[in-house]
Amino acid sequence: MNIKKMIAAVIVLLALFSCNSSPRAAGQNSDNQGVMEKNEKTLVVFFSHAGDNYAVGNVPVGNTKIVADYIHEMIGADLFELVIDKYDGMAYEPLCELAKQEQKDGVLPEFQGELKNIDQYKTVLIGGPVWWGTYPQVMFTFFKKYDLSGKTLIPFTTHEGSGLGRCAEDVRKAYPNAEVKGEFAIYGHEVRGGKKQVAKWLSDLGYTVSYEE
């Protein structure tokens, strides 16, 4: 009788072990791990100029900020805006001259705020308008302050004919040990109706995009 009870107990234990190790349970763990890998945290670092902008006039929110907000809405990326007071309220022509002189002199304007825990981001999207062929100088202030080596960097620009300019090239120069790819440029005057363009770009990069017109 004792032997029969022992055999029965072994059979029950084997059955329980088999249930807990079923293919479905193993698959659920694998799927969850895959989701975590696909949804690594993304950061958008950007500068955007509100006020007098070429082709769109005086606007309360700059073109690049609109794109950054689209990205946040569609993929849940965190945002860090480089805010600099001295450009506020400047008309387009004086601002162009100031930007040209800053680039010539290598000026690195300070921006407000501090970015903490940057190590948590594997991918950083870097956005700004194209001023005299590349990003505004405040972007280079950021490049000097923060080390993005080892990350995936994705430049994007708003422009009125310059495309990407030298922006991607300058990101590569600033971060030779990062992977720079997936560049995107959009006309500033198309931004307000360009949500679909941004959605396609993000989808092509491999993101799962939540998109509504």
End-to-end C-alpha gap: 73 Å
What is the C-alpha radius of gyration, as a whole number of Å? Answer: 25 Å
Average pLDDT score: 83
Class per helix and strand makeup: alpha/beta
Q: Major sheet, described briefly? A: 6 strands, parallel
The CATH class of the largest domain is Alpha Beta
Uncertain runs are 1-37
Compute the number of helices.
Answer: 7
CATH architecture of the largest domain: 3-Layer(aba) Sandwich
Architecture blueprint of SSEs:
Blueprint: H1 2-20, H2 23-38, E1 42-46, E2 51-53, E3 57-59, H3 63-75, E4 78-81, H4 92-105, E5 123-129, H5 137-145, E6 152-159, H6 167-174, E7 179-180, E8 184-187, H7 195-204
Parallel strand pairs: 1-4, 1-5, 5-6, 6-7, 6-8
Antiparallel strand pairs: 2-3
Helix pairs in contact: 3-7
Short description:
This protein is α/β, with parallel strands linked by helices and 213 residues long. It has seven helices and eight strands, in the order H-H-E-E-E-H-E-H-E-H-E-H-E-E-H.
